[in-house]
From TrEMBL:
Pfam families attached to this UniProt entry: WS_DGAT_C, WS_DGAT_cat
A single MF term (Gene Ontology): acyltransferase activity
Protein name as it appears in the record: diacylglycerol O-acyltransferase
EC number(s) given by UniProt: 2.3.1.20
Pathway where it operates: Glycerolipid metabolism; triacylglycerol biosynthesis; Lipid metabolism
Chain ranges of the O-acyltransferase WSD1-like N-terminal domain: 8-270
Amino acid sequence: MPLTRTPMTAVDRAWLRMDTPENPMMICGVLAMDRPISINRLKRTLEERFLRFHRFRQRVVDKGDRAYWQDDPLFDLDNHLHQIALPGDADKAALQKLVSDLNSSSLDFRRPLWQLHYIDNYQGGSALLLRIHHCIADGISLVRVMLSLTDRGPEPKLAKVPARVTTTPPKRSWIQATLHRAVDSVQAANYQTRLFIQSVRDEPEYPLKLASTAGSVAFDLLKLGLAPVEPETGLKRPLCGRKRVAWAEPLPLDEVKACARALGGTVNDILMCTATGALQRHFAAHQEGVPECGLRVAVPFNLRPLNQPIDTLGNQFGLVLLALPVEVRDPIMCFRQVQENMNRLKRSYQAQVTYSLLDLFGRGPDVLERRALHLLSNKASAVLTNVPGPKHALYLAGAEVTQPMFWVPQSGSIGIGMSIFSYAGTVQFGITIDKNIPADPDAVMEYFQESFQALSHAALAGRQGALERRAG
């Protein structure tokens, strides 16, 4: 009996085809925990909470012009869950080395595209390393999936999640399928026409607003295509595919919020400015000239409704190019420039434009996507993600999660990925760097800390001076 196949969406297929030996398209997550956990309890948690997402039981069937999801007839959890232990008195450096090794290795395309490693003997506790291919879902939804394995307390009540019933529609002939698409198109056109007429009745200026929006989208597309390539720096080198991973000690979120209030900005503005300062310090440490035009980073922008059910996977995000003013030395002036750049991006349609481009590339020939990817990746020096996490501590299989970290993959010729993740009143910083790029990931993590402290001191000193002037 032939296995049922589900067509892959064009956007997911675009991410599938981005996979290269230099940049495997894997989202990587690490959860450090305060104690060892039972492997049997971990398996039960995965079976009840992780495998209820049917996509994790399916492998990819790539037919060149089309790609499909197909149930793996030989699926076995033991093919994806591995148990290892770090040697001796393992510290953070030992775990970072292991994560670097695994993050440099591609997934097995003969099986569902994910792997989970349970790591024992880490600082008196344990850790979990999860790698999932980007074609399954975007970082936002996969972080939510991973966190769904956790609980608010150490003693959860694990209940069997009923298997979702899926029905396979009857197979249509070519003529039936063509007629069906035609009917759908006519119905969609009628609906859009009625919606447009109703909008004009409710708001006579609606056609002008629609034309203005269309013009803005076209303008953002033009700006994206005409944006200059990134300046030649040590951050843009040919890649070897060997990754080096590091993460910093967490920052107290209250301190970040206090800095944001003092400067009249958002937490996100503060963190993006902190990343800018870290790159400034990297250039200074390597005695490398800072580009006068700044640097750009590709920032994923979520297009998924926040109330969308967690079982809806797939990729629903666009990319925006954020200019980081690394040439501006003064922390406050640098913050103001970052804030202005962020506000300009929020008013643009760049995320929707890049999402539409991914959808278009996923439907076209592979060579078109490769050329477009090369063009776009030359316009950024790094990928920078900022994902808000839970405000309270979580537990997994009875152990408290003490520090979570996540990295999204880089694409094309980009060899640096920086990640920011908030968790239980802290802010976590992480980085992954291709070995060919002359940058020490541990040093860059120290620069993150130094950059924030410099910005915070300048912000609070400025606020105190303003209060003293008012009092005088």
